[in-house]
Design the sequence.
């Protein structure tokens, strides 16, 4: 981060405010900033409204089929944003097979309505609704049932209780959800790249990408300033949340098990229908459109039993060299990141949880930073750090797959650390002490006692990292080089090049891999502490 | 087998003195119970002995080697001690035999020696043939015995037991108590037994250390603790002793004295070398109180409650001479005694608390 600030004001070792001045006086900078703010606020609003509403219904009412619903609802979060964006594009495109089937396709040649700020906001909102859902669900789970029951026995109707008790107490998690969604929307690259660039609607991450792709290293000082700008906005968002929270006391005094408080009675079926319709609208329809597009021989061709083909899949799987490489790269990178992080996280969490020290608390906060700041910022920082060979060693990892791995490790460490930490919290410390008394030293205790007991949680963390890295585009879009393409990069270049059927086929494959992995974890589910797998209620 | 010596141990948590100048010397092969209510510092003491915590002052020796000082401390894994944890702490991912063998594996003991010792340890706790089971499939008592076998298989010089019976049913406790006693007899290991249950401590220990507010109040044999408590706290804690003021004490030179107790002349025991003079306080046990005829000499009292306890009544009364120190005694069935009755109590025995001054209550000394 410091490197980033230095590059912004002092490229080539001489202090100069020129890049700063140049960037800050360029109108494009401010247009992109305004666009970023508009889409981030819009997306956040939508995400929090949808996610919050669903969290309240899932937590506080007696709807049926909760587990299946949560699994599907959380899914978009673990799919690649750019794939979700393409799915939505296909749903509304003039050549949309689905709309054609329904006879409601826009006229050929009409502009796709999603190529707009509204489109970006819509897809951002859908993508990050699960994020706000997860935060609010966790908070509602911790809400003591007595508080609700006390309100109801005081004569308040369910709606009054919701308005006067539940919502006020939920202020901190709501603010936290807003801050998190805001930062995520702000840093998202895939969605505005797919929906904004064709409409010439540029936000900060896509501006950075375009600059870097168009002009190369000469603009590094300028993009450093841009990424500082986006980092500053993100930090301001988090600070604002913090300030608002300090103003009031939201501490909850008692804690018992939560219960579903409200019976919906005759409203239950309509609510259930509404929830599942929401799923169909935000998940099933776009994904179906994507799948149908993948079956079309070429964009624009009508889909019927004769024209349907698996040619696109064959092409991306076997023929296209970069796509084939990308499968290998993405699998290897994601697996390497997942395994490395878990190997680091298990001993690190041991010291964090069981050997408290100031230094380690600090380390804990530091690991959160790369995940809290937008990915573009991390990527630019990494470029600046590694564009010259590493001092002393003389090795250059720039333009190799290693720089991507480095960024994955930095960015996703916290994803692996959190479940492992919660695993330690649920582990009885005396199990370790007993082995210590038996004479086992630390390395042996970690290997024979702690590792086997923490393994299911660590595996879940590893899977979370794998899924996230596998579907990632923001980092690799800025860091890839020929030979180190990731699936996200190849997908994006297909789409940029107008080969949306190939892109769709690739997207369908990544979605299938992601869903298969999520489903496979349900086998582990019984051995995991609750709250480790986001898609499990 | 090793001596355990604790010298001037202190542990602070902020301002709170969890351990306050604790000294303790445990002999080779001795079974010492550390007894106290929760929060008295007994678990803190155990963690110091095990080496999980570092003291702020004082030192701990096992045998002749210093294991803990505020500056240097031997890590738990090098102390060669055994612990039976309250939660048993059996490793759920290992079988019973693997649990027991763990310490041997760490020490590098190989089969067949390893298998022989595991079998022997399991046989010792009557669990021969249970080696292949998972801990989760065992009952509470069986788990406790596995924990015991695991802790003893490496023949530690010192065994710490942290409330080992707290999680067991009442009927299981009695049989486990016997188990521990037999065990100690057979192995002769030095044992430190942490508990809040005085019946347990009395039944098992050679000596008991009574702890309160981070201090050891008295270290003595169970009988000595009961008969000759060191101070008022110990007297009240052990066996619900009653404290009464005494006056006009005159020692007779044979370890006894004659004194006024609640307006009644009684023969009391006192600590050797410190004969009481004038006013003091004494501990009286319920077994030393009995009802006598109204004409006899005794303490005048009024019954406040009569509680049936199966075979006898627990009678609670207030002496006219000291109405703020409730007295209680057991009266055999059948008895026609009710709350509100006037009674006369004879005091057959008592122990003059050493080194305590009479407490002044309500502005004047009663007695």
Sequence:
């Amino acid at each position: 981060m410091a490197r980033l600030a230095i590059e912004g004001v002092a490229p080539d070792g001489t202090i100069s405010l020129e890049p700063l001045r140049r960037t800050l006086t360029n109108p494009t900078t401010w247009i992109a900033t305004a666009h970023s703010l508009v889409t981030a606020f819009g997306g956040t609003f939508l995400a929090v409204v949808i996610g919050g509403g669903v969290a309240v219904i899932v937590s506080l009412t007696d709807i049926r089929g909760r587990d299946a619903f949560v699994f599907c609802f959380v899914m978009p979060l673990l799919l690649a944003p750019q794939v979700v964006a393409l799915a939505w594009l296909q749903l509304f495109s003039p050549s949309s097979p689905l709309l054609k089937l329904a006879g409601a396709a826009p006229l050929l040649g009409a502009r796709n309505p999603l190529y707009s700020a509204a489109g970006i906001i819509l897809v951002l909102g859908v993508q990050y609704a699960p994020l706000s859902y997860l935060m609010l669900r966790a908070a509602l789970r911790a809400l003591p049932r007595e508080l609700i029951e006390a309100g109801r026995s005081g004569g308040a109707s369910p709606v009054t209780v919701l308005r006067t008790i539940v919502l006020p107490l939920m202020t901190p998690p709501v603010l936290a959800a807003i801050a998190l969604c805001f930062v995520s929307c702000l840093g998202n690259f895939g969605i505005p790249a797919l929906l904004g660039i064709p409409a010439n609607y540029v936000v900060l991450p896509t501006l950075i990408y375009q600059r870097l792709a168009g002009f190369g290293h000469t603009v590094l000082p300028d993009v450093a300033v841009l990424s500082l700008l986006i980092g500053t906005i993100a930090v301001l968002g988090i600070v604002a949340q913090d300030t608002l929270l300090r103003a009031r006391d939201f501490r909850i005094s008692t804690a018992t098990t939560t219960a579903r408080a409200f019976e919906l009675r005759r409203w239950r079926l309509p609510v259930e229908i509404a929830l599942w319709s929401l799923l169909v609208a935000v998940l099933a329809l776009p994904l179906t459109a994507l799948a149908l597009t993948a079956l079309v021989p070429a964009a624009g061709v009508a889909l019927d039993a004769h024209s349907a083909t698996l040619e696109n899949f064959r092409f991306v799987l076997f023929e296209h060299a970069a796509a084939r490489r990308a499968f290998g790269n993405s699998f290897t990178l994601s697996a390497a990141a997942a395994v490395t992080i878990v190997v680091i996280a298990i001993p690190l969490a041991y010291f964090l949880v069981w050997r408290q020290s100031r230094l380690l608390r600090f380390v804990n906060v530091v690991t959160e930073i790369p995940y809290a700041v937008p990915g573009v910022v991390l990527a630019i920082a990494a470029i600046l750090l590694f564009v010259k060979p590493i001092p002393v060693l003389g090795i250059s990892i720039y333009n190799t797959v290693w720089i991507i791995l480095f960024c994955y490790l930095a960015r996703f460490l916290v994803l692996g650390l959190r479940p492992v930490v919660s695993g330690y919290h649920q582990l009885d410390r005396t199990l370790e002490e007993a082995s210590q008394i038996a004479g086992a030293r630390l390395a042996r205790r970690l290997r024979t006692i702690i590792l086997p007991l923490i393994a299911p949680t660590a595996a879940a963390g590893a899977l979370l990292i794998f899924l996230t890295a596998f579907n990632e585009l923001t980092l690799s879009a800025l860091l890839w080089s020929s030979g180190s393409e990731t699936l996200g990069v190849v997908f994006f270049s297909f789409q940029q090049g107008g080969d949306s059927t190939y892109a769709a086929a690739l997207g369908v494959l990544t979605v299938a891999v992601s869903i298969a992995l999520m489903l496979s974890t349900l086998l582990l589910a019984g051995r995991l502490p609750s709250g480790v797998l986001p898609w499990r209620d | 087998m090793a001596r355990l010596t604790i010298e001037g141990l202190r542990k602070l948590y902020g301002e709170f003195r969890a351990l306050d100048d604790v000294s303790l010397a445990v002999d080779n092969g001795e079974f010492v119970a550390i007894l106290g209510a929760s929060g008295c510092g007994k678990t803190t003491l155990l963690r110091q002995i095990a080496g999980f915590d570092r003291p702020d002052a004082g030192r701990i020796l096992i045998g002749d080697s210093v294991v803990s000082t505020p500056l240097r401390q031997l890590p738990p894994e090098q102390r060669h001690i055994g612990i039976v944890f309250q939660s048993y702490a059996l490793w759920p991912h290992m079988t019973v035999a693997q649990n027991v063998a763990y310490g041997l594996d760490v020490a590098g003991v190989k089969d067949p020696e390893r298998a022989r010792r595991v079998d022997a340890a399991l046989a010792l706790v009557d669990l021969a043939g249970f080696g292949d089971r998972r801990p989760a499939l065992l009952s509470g008592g069986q788990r406790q015995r596995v924990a015991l076998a695991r802790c003893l298989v490496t023949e530690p010089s010192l065994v710490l037991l942290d409330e080992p019976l707290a999680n067991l049913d009442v009927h299981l406790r009695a049989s486990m108590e016997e188990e521990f006693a037999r065990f100690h007899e057979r192995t002769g290991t030095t044992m430190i037994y942490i508990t809040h249950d005085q019946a347990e401590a009395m039944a098992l220990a050679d000596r008991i250390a009574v702890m309160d507010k981070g201090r050891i109040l008295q270290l003595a044999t169970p009988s000595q603790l009961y008969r000759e408590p060191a101070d008022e706290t110990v007297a009240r804690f052990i066996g619900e002793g009653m404290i009464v003021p005494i006056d006009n004490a005159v020692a007779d030179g044979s370890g006894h004295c004659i004194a006024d107790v609640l307006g009644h002349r009684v023969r009391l025991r006192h600590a050797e070398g410190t004969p009481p003079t004038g006013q003091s306080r004494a501990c009286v046990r319920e077994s030393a109180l009995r009802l006598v005829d109204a004409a006899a000499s005794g303490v005048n009292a009024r019954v406040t409650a009569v509680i049936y306890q199966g075979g006898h009544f627990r009678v609670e009364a207030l002496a006219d001479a000291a109405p703020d120190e409730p007295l209680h005694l057991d009266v055999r069935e059948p008895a026609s005694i009710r709350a509100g009755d006037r009674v006369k109590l004879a005091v057959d025995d008592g122990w003059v608390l050493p080194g305590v001054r009479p407490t002044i209550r309500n502005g004047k000394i009663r007695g």
User: Anything to note?
Assistant: The first strand of chain B starts at residue 4 and ends at 13. Residues 304 and 336 of chain B are 14 Å apart (CA to CA). Chain B touches chain A at residues 50, 52, 75-83, 85-87, 89-93, 102-103, 106-107, 150-151, 154 (CB under 8 Å).
